[in-house]
Design goal:
This protein has 426 residues and is an alpha/beta fold. The chain contains twelve helices and 20 strands. The chain folds into two domains: 13-97 and 153-420, FAD/NAD(P)-binding domain; 98-152, no CATH class. Helix 1 packs parallel to helix 6 and helix 1 crosses helix 12. The protein starts with 12 loop residues before the first strand and ends in a 22-residue tail after the last helix.
């Protein structure tokens, strides 16, 4: 099947590999390929890191990961530890742990069940008492806290810096990064992906990596490739400079937060997301019923302007929204800031300087999709990271480069295979 887009100029540039999407997964893949001398180009419809890769709140965690993801995250932590030196940029990397707070017996029991999983993979995860939590967080004053689940080897970094740093390092190794250059379609011939149709024209390649985040399903649909994902909107706000030092660990409880190097704090609405209903809801909704029932307390459905715009086809044209910039949930953010004030009264009045939201690419089983798409030789995918992709960026870039180059990745990727959604055409 050959798909073309008329009225585009035929440049017929050629690269060994082309990557669709300039988020952390795409540019990390390009960087790792460029390190080996592969000619690679990234096509991003907006700015590098402009969407979810820069809109996360910065956690890099192994804690509470699915067992299938843990080996990848353990390697990713090792990569994060040397990433600033390798990329030559400050990423505000801190490795002082991840702490999930406990307020009730049910949560404590759930955390206790996860500890053997972490320890089986060599992690130092342990339960803390309420007293130990307060020693770790000297300004924390919530008397309801019973303790917490703590993994000291976890860390955090600044999302606004990471994708840009990967892109800069890739450019220095001769990778081409084309911003404001959307991809309209993928061309295939004789069962093989062979080219992209972009705003620059037709671009040929030996292999194509789709790392388009929330846009992935729409890009693959014309090829009749199923990527059953939903857009889940998460909101984050940033405070002014606070007169307390929260260390640089990442706590997660009534609120989720990370203190930046400038003293400001990113506050996220913990365990809560919004699904703006639209075309993908109609297309894939049935696949998400088990997940929706399991996460009914943490997920809200919204039927508003987004749904109308989607049903009218506004998101079918990849040039319409260079950067998805959804409205943050200010009502919940204000409530979250009030909860933070109760937990940290010494911080004084909390003023939210700015807020933002991003769309996460959620899968029915909440596991990512990584690998070659069955029935389409040379067409690879790295998407569906379900809100937990930021920390995995470095290892995913390394793995995708190895997959494209037919090298051993060193990991069992069967749980992430596209075959669980797209059956082979061959």
């Amino acid at each position: 099947m050959i798909q073309t887009v008329p009225a585009m100029r035929h440049t017929d540039e050629h690269y060994d590999v082309v990557v669709v999407g300039g988020g952390i997964m795409g540019v990390a893949t390009a960087y790792n390929l460029a390190k080996t001398g592969v000619s690679v180009a990234v096509f991003e419809k907006g700015r590098v890191g402009g969407e979810q890769s820069s809109r996360a709140w910065g956690a890099v965690r192994q804690q509470e990961r699915a067992p299938a993801e843990l080996p990848l995250m353990i390697e990713s932590i090792r990569l994060w530890a040397v990433l600033e030196a390798e990329l030559g940029e400050s990423l505000d990397w801190r490795q002082q742990g991840h702490l999930a707070l406990v307020y009730d017996e049910k949560t404590s029991e759930e955390f206790e069940k996860w500890i053997p999983i972490g320890r089986a993979h060599g992690l130092d995860t342990r339960m803390l008492t309420g007293e130990e939590v307060r020693k770790l967080l000297p300004h924390y004053r919530d008397s309801e806290c019973r303790g917490g689940l703590f993994t000291s080897s976890d860390g955090c970094a600044e999302p606004e810096k990471v994708a840009v740093a990967f892109a800069g390092a890739a450019r220095r190794r001769n990778a081409k990064i084309f911003e404001f250059t959307s991809v309209a379609s993928i061309e295939t011939e004789n069962g093989r992906a062979c080219a992209l149709w972009t705003e620059r024209g037709r671009v040929k390649a030996n292999a194509i990596v789709v790392a388009a985040g929330a846009w992935t399903s729409r890009l693959l649909k014309p090829l009749e490739i199923e990527h059953p994902s939903l857009w889940i909107r998460g909101s984050v706000a940033r405070t002014g400079v606070l007169p307390i030092n929260l260390r640089k660990l990442v706590p997660w409880g009534k609120t989720a937060y990370r203190q930046r190097s400038d003293g400001r704090v990113n506050i996220a609405v913990a365990r809560a997301g919004i699904h703006d209903l639209g075309k993908e809801s109609l297309r894939f909704g049935a696949k998400f019923l088990p997940t929706a029932r399991h996460n009914c307390r943490n997920l809200r459905f919204c039927l508003g302007s987004h749904a109308i715009r989607d049903l009218m086809g506004e998101f079918d044209d990849f040039t319409t929204h260079r950067t998805l910039d959804p409205r943050p949930d200010w009502k919940r953010l204000e409530k979250t800031a009030a909860l933070f004030s109760q937990e940290y009264p010494e911080a004084g009045p909390i003023r939210l300087e700015r807020g933002w939201a991003g769309f996460m690419d959620f899968m029915p089983d909440e596991l990512p999709v990584m690998g070659e798409i069955p029935g389409f030789r040379g067409l690879f995918i790295a998407a569906g990271f379900s809100g937990a992709g930021f920390g995995m960026g470095p290892v995913v870039g390394r793995i995708m480069a190895d997959l494209v180059s037919a090298n051993d990745t060193g990991h069992d990727l069967r749980h992430f295979s596209p075959t669980r959604f797209s059956k082979s055409r061959g």
